[in-house]
């Protein structure tokens, strides 16, 4: 689904029924994969590739503050999303 939409780092992504925020998380993974230089791609001991998204630096403030919006009626899921968001930012 994300590949069909092909979000760009200067756009806004909204999930009106975000639940566990899987769509939003996969969007960030897509951006990291698409915007990593060869030096920003790492391989772990199991051969899995990890993408740093190093080419996203010019967009980092927008990504961190304005890009992702998720809405849901289940406050438990919203609290979990906030916790994951804070953990990703090192808070």
What does the model show?
It is built from 4 helices and 4 strands; from the N terminus they run H-E-H-E-E-H-E-H. The protein is of the alpha+beta class. Strands 1-4 form a two-stranded parallel sheet. A two-stranded antiparallel ribbon has the order 2-3. The longest helix is centred in the C-terminal third of the chain and has 14 residues, at 75-88. The mean pLDDT is 89.
Features:
single chain; 43% helix; alpha+beta; 4 helices; globular; two-stranded parallel ribbon; 91 residues; two-stranded antiparallel ribbon
Count of helical stretches: 4
Order of helices and strands: HEHEEHEH
Question: What is the chains' assembly state?
Answer: single chain
* Alpha-carbon distance between the two ends: 30 Å
Give the class from helix and strand content and strand pairing.
alpha+beta
Largest sheet: 2 strands, parallel
Outline the low-pLDDT stretches: none
- Cα-atom Rg, whole angstroms? 14 Å
How much of the sequence is in beta strands? 5-15%
- Percent range of helical residues: 40-55%
What is the average per-residue confidence, as pLDDT, rounded to a whole number?
89
Strand order in space, largest sheet: 1-4
Q: Count every beta strand, where a strand is a DSSP E run of 2 or more residues.
A: 4
Shape: globular
